[in-house]
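A brief tutorial aside. Many learners find it easier to grasp structure tokens once they have seen a single protein encoded end to end. The record that follows does exactly this for Calcium homeostasis modulator protein 6-like. Read the sequence first, then the structure, and try to relate runs of similar tokens to stretches of the chain.
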Amino acid sequence: MRKEWAARLKNQLKKSPFYSNAIFGFLMVGLEKLVEMDFACPCKPVMNLVFSIAYFLVPALFSSALMFYIHSPQCKTQSLLSTLTCIIPAGVWVMLLFFDGQYYACAKTSWVGLTVKTDISASTTWCQPLIDSNNITEKQMDFFGFRNTSQFVGLGFLLVISVALYIFGCIRCCHQTAGTKEPEAEQVEMEDPGQRSAPPPEGSALMEEERSASSEQL
């Protein structure tokens, strides 16, 4: 039973892009939650940017490479669909990181500090400044401003994806309706004209009337 289930799952992953992307999406949500608990910003201006970019790019490239490996047999027949299928997991990962906010905020942090937990959220860390300790409130406000900007970008990503899916769905629906109408028209053209019921000619009706009139005269 386990082998059959694994074989069916493998076939579904290869054949259905939606099925594979749905599974990858749930896995990425869980992975992002695990990474969020262990994420700690280096609190050094140069390292902050490099560290955050690595968190954005490396998992995104890995997910795209894995999806490309799964759907590589379909590249010859469905190249465009395979390409989009490989890009979707990377886009989902980047969107999740923007929604979290602390990765972008870490990249934008430009002061040296110590990684500490915030008072608002226990799972969010920020760089508490060490040099100017009297300016902690202002720096914390800047950090949460960066975080809000990141979440706004994540919402923008979600909006663009939603609009794109709606447009592709409308195009697909129009193509399906056009495809169903064409076979019906072909079936009508292929019908035998001799089988169609034709109305009786007008001449036969006139001849019957003349015959009935002549019989009455006799």
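Self-check: The CA atoms of residues 168 and 174 lie 10 Å apart. If you spotted this yourself, you are ready for the next section.
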